Structure formats: C-alpha cells, structure tokens
Amino acid sequence: MKHRIGICDDEIAICSELECYLLDFFREQTDDVEVFVWNSAETFINDVPEKVNVDILFLDIELPQKNGVDVGYYIRETIHDEGMHIIFISYKSSYAMELFDLHPYNFLIKPMKREKVYSEIQKLLQLDSQDKRFFSYSYNKNRYKILMGDIIYFKSEKHHIKVIYVDGKKEYVGKLKDEIKKLPSNFAMISQSVIVNVRHIRECLVTDLIMDNGDQLSISRSYRVTFNMKMIENSKWGEIKDELA
Amino acid sequence: MSLLDIIMSVIIELARIVITILYFKTFLDLCGRIRLIWISGLSFLITTMSYLVFNNNVINSLSTIIGIFIIAFAFQGKLKSKVLLSILCYSIMIAIDFIVFFIDIDSNNRYEYKIVISFLSVLLFYAVMMLLKLVFRKKMKTEFMGQWYILFVVSIMSVCVLFVIYKEMTMSAFGILFVSTVVLVMNLLLYVFYSNMLDRFVYVQENENLKQQMNFYEQQLKMNMENDKKIRLIRHDIKHHIREINNLADNGRLEDIKLYTRRLEEDIKDSEIVYNTGNITLDGILNYYHSRFVEKDIKTDINVTVPENMVLWAYDLNIILGNLLDNAFENTVRSKEPYVIVDVKYEGHVLYISVANTYDGKVKKENEMFLSRKGNNHGYGLENIKRIARKYNGDIRIENSRNFFIVGVVMYLETGERV
Questions:
Q1: Stated pTM of the model
Q2: How close, in Å, is residue B145 to chain A by CA atoms?
Q3: What is the pLDDT of residues B204-229, one digit of tens each?
Q4: A94: nearest CA in chain B?
Q5: Distance from B144 to chain A by nearest Cα, in Å?
C-alpha cells in the first residue's frame, strides 16, 4: 500500500528535513510512501485535488500571502475533503480558535523532532489500519461489507438497522445491542437507537453531536456516562494506557 | 383567648415558617435574602392572624397551604416544582398532625396537653425535614455534604423529651410552654450553627484554591520578568554577535558560523517560557509544575494543544489541572522512576486532559475513589475534579496498573453560543 503525504511550507529547509524523516520512516515499513512538497498555498491549491491528492498533509500555519488557515478552509470547505489528516506546523505554541474549527489531526512545533514525526505517522498508520478493517452484515441471505472507517453511525428503526457511511446508507435486519459488542472501541452508543463512530464526530455540543456528514444526533441522558468513558478512552488517555500496560 | 395562647401560636408559627424555609432550601435555590424576609413575614402574618382571629379548622388549613405556597415564591424554580413541593410539605404536616392526634387520643383535652402536642408536631416536622436533608443531600452543591444525621438524632431526642413531658405531666402550662420553646429553639439554633460552619468550611476550601491560583500567577509573572531580562540581554549583545559572525564570514569559516548561530539559537530558546498557549491560567499552572518537576528531577512528557482564550473558567481549570498535577507530583516523587505524562488537547469543542504518573504501588481504592497515602485529601481532590467535569457535562476516568496511575478528564466547552 502506498501512502501519499504532502508538505506545504515556504521554508525549504523545513520541507527537506521533514521529507527526509518521512522517507527514513517508511524505509523500515512494508508500506510505500510518496512525498509531495509545496512551498506556497497557491501552488497547493493549484495541484490539489486535480493533479494529486494526499492522505496526510503537514501544513505550515504562517505561509506568505494565503496562509495555512486559508488552505485548511480550502480543503474542508471548497473541495469538501473531510478525510485528509492535517497536521499544522508552526514555530508558535499558541493557536487561534479557527484552526481548531478545521479539525486538524494534530499540531507540531518547529523545528520538528524526528521521534515526534515518527510517532505521529505511526499513530496515523495504526488508525488507518484499524479503519481499513471491514464490518460485515447479511441481508436477504447475502453477505455485505463496509470499511469500518467509512461508517459514520448506526441507527435502528424497529427491527432494521441503518448504516450511515461516507458514501450513503445501507439497511439490514439486526439489533444495535448485538452490534455494539462486535464493533471496536471507537464506536459508542449514545442512545437506545444510535451507535456513533467517535472518529467521525465533527463537533460536540452540550447534548448533541454533529457528525462529519452534518447530521445532528442527540446523546440520551442515560447513556451520558458510558459515552463520556468512551470519549476518554478514545483520547490520548487510552493511548497512554495501552502504551503503559 | 389567653395571652399564653397567643404567645404559643406565635412561637409555633414562627418555627413552622423557619422549618418550611429550610425544607424548600433542601430542594431549591434562594432568590434573595430581602425577598425571603418579606415573603416569610407575609406568610407568618397570614397564618398567625387566621389562627388567632378565626380559629376555625377549614380556614386554618387553608391559611397553612397558602402560607407554604407563598414561601415557595422566595425560591427559584419552575412553578410546577414549587406547587409539588408545597403539596408535599403540606402532606407531611398533615401526616404529622395525624400521628400526633393518635398520641393525643386518650388525653382529657387539658390545656397543658395541647401545648405539648403543638410543640411535638413542630419538632416532628423538623425531624422529618432533617430526614429529607439526609436523603437528598447528594443534590447539595457543597462537596462537603456534612454529618446531618447528628442533627436528625438531636431532633428525635427532642421529640422524645416532649413526649416524656407529655406522659409525666407535672408542670404548669407556662412551664411547659417555656421548656418546649427552649427545646425547639435549641434545635433550630443548632441547625443554623451547623450550616454556618459548613459554609465556612466551603469558604476556606475555596480560599485555599484561590491561594493556589495566586501562586500560579505569581510564578508566571516571575517567569515573564526573567524572560524579559534575558531577551534584553540578547538584544544588548546582538551588535557583538553580528560583528563576530561578520568576522567569521570574512575569513570564510562557514562551519564556525554554523556553530556560532546554533549556540545563539540555543541561548534564545533557553529564554523562552516553556508553555505559552495563550491561556494565562493554563500556562501558569504548567510552568509552575514544570519548574517543580525539574527541581525534583522528574522526567516529563507534556503536550498541550489548545486554542488561545479557551472558554473555561480559570477557577475550574485551576481545580482540575492543579489537583491532577499535584497528585501526580506527590505520587511520582516517591516512586523509583519519577515520570509524569501530561496531555491537554482540544478537539471539536471538547477538552481532554490526561495525566499519568509512576507511583510506588500503594493505592487504596475506596468507594470507587482512589485515596492516596496523603489521606482523604487525594480522594477529595478527585471528587472535586469530578464535580467540575460534570458541570461541563463531562466526567473523569481513573485507572491504575502495577506502577502507573492514569487519570483522564473530558469536558464539553461548547456553551451553545459562539464566543
């Protein structure tokens, strides 16, 4: 499998250093990598998505003319790419709120340390491999499967379960209580009739969730504690726990 | 109607009103002190007047209901809950009157008995109120919920005293009125004394937290000033640095220039404040603990990704992060390999805080809360964190492995409106 990683930064030295880290990292992996470098927002916008597309983008916040925020809005709102993992890079450690509205994967402080870049990529690859597993179900005696990572949420209506995923909807017969047992830990039940993929939550309001496809789902009060525990488990807390176990 | 009668009904009505106010206080929040005073005054006037003027059963019960309902309006809350609580209050009174009626059934309707019975019913009402407080105390906001059962026991004991007086009737009507009033007033005074003490306790706790916050700010200020001094020094020396670099460049010593600028870069980096996220409180706490960790040679791995000016009350953040880092520090410092991991991350209006630390493996788990060897304080801190997290619809999760202790907190900072 080939990963496409982009770097968009006007500092040539940073770009080449990062590119070097990435190539070194993938030399020891079974997967391949292709690294694309842009030195300005304008060239990036010119190339993506027409000429190339990337899965992961290291994006400098302080670009000349159009800056990193503009590129972020271009990705999320102009070309509607919700899946691209953006990692903002900057010399500063204080970030404006609007950067968080672009739901970036993470932030790195320049100059970047090799181990830090490695661990970020490692985590992303791990998430990716988890999302590349299949969820399978049967309907009318046929077996179907959907990529776990594509599933946004499950909704039950009477005896049917609707799967809302990135490219549409599927329906089959089943019970949510049984399904949640089969799903990995990034799926959380938020009410009697809804299971969400925590990775597809765009925003958390006080009692509602806004999913990546814009759907608004409400968290029932009796599921609040379980949902909160799932949220903590899917945060850095869970990572640290797994690492230390 | 005798003077004794008037004095008795005034005392009884006053006590009833005070207890009714305490009753509502268990469930609802007060609107304001002045409003409470004139509302209870009004309620007192209506009930006492109707009792003294009409002395008719129907009018008396009606005025009691109205009196209770009027008091409800000194409190905040929906009309529905006020009505329901008033009805509940009245039914408690009726039930007590009923019990008292059965006690009184074999009496020969002597005046002395009537006095004891009236006081008995008020005291019973007070005892029931204490019981309600015991049951519903979880709803109370103060983290120190108090030992209300002591007051309950005292009220039951007082009821017993009145019962004994009733059974062994040896006093005059005036004596009975006096003793009953004293017992009643003592109960109420004990209540006032106790709740004031609780308030004071909470106040001291809050003060302690604020003092801690001041420490963080002071540390941050000191750091800022030191930093400023260093920057000024570098600026002062910049002429020399440029001359030196120029010198090296003239001689074509490229490697030396690189070495020189690298050293300069390190100097500048040294002068930077460790955590600068644009959130004064957060930076203050992190920098404060960073210096404590460095001082004790504790290995740390701290990551913070949050927006500037987060919508989170400084006081709350201070309690949560201050307690977490304090616990981590206290526990890790005694372990063989002191190590603390801190991660603070903001994502989709959610704030996640994870703190992990090594410890020497001695943890008592009690009532689902972890208590350290420091005694109750540790569990108290975690209880406090939970309370604040819950305020933001969030929660806390704690796990410990053989030598690691990991606490996670989630909080939802979206307030509904964009700030």
A1: 0.71
A2: 23
A3: 877 887 887 788 777 777 777 777 77
A4: B277
A5: 23
